[in-house]
Recover the amino acids of this structure.
């Protein structure tokens, strides 16, 4: 039995490592005189402690070191990008895609990427240092953290920037591919090396307006449609459930007024859950608003409210017991040296839990994060 | 007689000071920062918007030629002029923007070099790479051409 297990583990390790190596092997074919490699390391160490829990079952505390590795290759019109995350709790190939540049303003990507219809996710990916806060908003959480929207899609994506004469721009993104499926109590992304995994399709679109082509300010719209197949045998709760169709329509904004910055996204969720006996429709609204203020050159205070409405009646969210329905958070971040930071967050948090009454707790987090080189 | 010599010496000293001062002012007035490119590159000019786009990774080709941006990171005065004149934002904002573009789209960041010779060699070796440098360094280097004046001291 142990022999079989070690064989499976070794096989899994080989599978994880083989695909990037195979793709890297194609890079010299596409190399050009002006080719360039870029390599970034995003290390971080998080500490978490919950206090004042409404139910002892939600008591938790941990220290989690993590290292996100980003590699990018550019040669002529060819582009390759991979992102791999190692932490004390997971080791996963997050993004792996090859791209073709159709002119200055359009990129075609093929591979595994982050959903176009999730604002925060497609801005910060796993680059922890790049986001001011330690935590992600609840609707932007990854699949394995009870995120309600698929994050990892495998297929084709197109990005197009339409610069205007007045140096503003319209940015368009569209993607389609294989969506995650629902297993036990979370979404599980498509495994690029397991073609028999029976995943549904995902379509995502995003439109953004930038008042300054070179600046960070942007506002926009998000639309996503996901056909989420269900592994009915993975949990008794899913026994009669065959399929979930999810439609998300949202807006987002990232806007600065001198030292003040607002990051916000609000999404309307519509689901149809198909059971053996019939189907159920549900809908709810969820979003967040994060305000940041630079008190001094290297100090930022920030706060975020994660909110939702109608979530108590959602059959879909009952399948995600760790989804954070409400969180009111305050934090402070100190940037030091060239690209390092220390951050502290305190929050009042509420999750749906297993029953209809919410479980609540307060949380304290500390984090060191950086980017090298 | 001694008084006469003393006056002459003072006049000579004054003339020397004025001459040095004039030469210094003249040299200072001629200080400029230019945009350079491989001399063999068919591109003859770039607008300021195109230069800015290239340094943000938003423009990778021009007139069917691959254009890459290169930087010298060892000269603080030159860097300050670059942040003010070319990208029009602080060093911190610019570096964050480049990191963000690399993280999101895999957009290559401008390659950085520690000295002028390395920078010139990179520009010469590139197809149509661009770099900014002091006018006198550009004039002394071979195999590159100056295509745009980016800054000139008043």
């Amino acid at each position: 039995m142990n022999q079989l297990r070690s064989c499976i583990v070794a096989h899994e390790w080989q599978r994880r490592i083989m695909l990037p190596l195979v793709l890297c092997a194609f890079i010299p074919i596409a190399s050009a005189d002006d080719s360039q490699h870029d390599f970034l390391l995003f290390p971080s160490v998080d500490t978490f402690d919950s206090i004042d829990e409404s139910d002892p079952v939600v008591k938790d505390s941990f220290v989690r070191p993590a290292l996100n590795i980003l590699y990018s290759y550019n040669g002529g019109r060819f582009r390759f990008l991979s992102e791999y995350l190692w932490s004390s709790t997971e080791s996963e190939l997050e993004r792996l895609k090859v791209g073709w540049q159709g002119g200055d303003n359009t990129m075609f990507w093929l591979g595994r990427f982050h959903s176009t219809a999730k604002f925060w996710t497609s801005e910060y990916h796993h680059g922890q240092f790049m986001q001011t806060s330690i935590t992600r908003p609840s609707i932007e959480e990854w699949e394995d953290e009870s995120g309600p929207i698929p994050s990892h899609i495998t297929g084709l994506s197109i990005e197009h920037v339409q610069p205007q004469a007045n140096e503003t721009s319209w940015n368009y993104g569209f993607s389609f591919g294989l969506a995650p499926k629902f297993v036990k109590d979370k979404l599980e992304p498509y495994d690029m090396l397991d073609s028999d995994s029976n995943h549904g399709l995902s379509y995502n679109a995003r439109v953004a307006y930038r008042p300054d082509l070179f600046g960070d300010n942007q506002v926009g719209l998000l639309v996503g449609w996901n056909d989420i197949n269900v592994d009915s045998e993975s949990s008794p709760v899913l026994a009669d459930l065959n399929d979930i169709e999810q439609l998300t329509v949202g807006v987002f904004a990232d806007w600065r007024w001198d030292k003040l910055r607002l990051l916000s996204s609000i999404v309307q969720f519509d689901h149809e859950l198909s059971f053996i006996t019939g189907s159920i429709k549900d809908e709810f609204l969820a979003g967040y608003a994060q305000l940041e203020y630079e008190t001094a050159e290297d100090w930022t205070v920030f706060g975020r409210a994660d909110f939702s409405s109608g979530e108590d009646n959602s059959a879909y969210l009952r399948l995600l017991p760790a989804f954070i329905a409400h969180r009111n958070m305050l934090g402070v971040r100190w940037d030091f040296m060239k690209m390092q930071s220390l951050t502290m967050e305190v929050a009042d948090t509420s999750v749906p839990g297993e029953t209809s009454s919410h479980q609540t707790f307060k949380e304290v987090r500390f984090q060191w994060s950086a980017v090298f080189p | 007689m001694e008084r006469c010599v003393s006056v002459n010496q003072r006049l000579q000293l004054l003339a020397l000071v004025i001459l040095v001062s004039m030469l210094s002012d003249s040299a200072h007035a001629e200080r400029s920062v230019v945009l350079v490119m491989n001399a063999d590159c068919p591109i003859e000019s770039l607008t300021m918007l195109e230069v800015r786009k290239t340094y943000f990774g938003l423009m990778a080709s021009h007139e069917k030629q691959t254009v890459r941006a290169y930087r010298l990171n060892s000269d603080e005065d030159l860097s300050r002029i670059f942040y003010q004149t070319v990208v029009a934002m602080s060093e911190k904002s610019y570096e964050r923007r480049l990191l963000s573009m690399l993280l999101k789209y895999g957009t290559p960041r401008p390659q950085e070099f520690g000295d002028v010779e390395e920078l010139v060699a990179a520009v010469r070796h590139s197809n149509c790479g661009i770099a900014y440098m002091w006018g006198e360094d550009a004039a002394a280097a071979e195999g590159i051409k100056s295509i745009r004046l980016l800054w000139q001291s008043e």
Remarks:
- Chain B has two domains: 1-30, 31-152.
- The two ends of chain B are 45 Å apart (CA to CA).
- The interface with chain A takes residues 49, 52-53, 56, 58-61, 66, 68, 87-89, 95-97, 99-100, 102-109, 111, 125-127, 129 of chain B (CB under 8 Å).
- The longest strand of chain B covers residues 144-152.
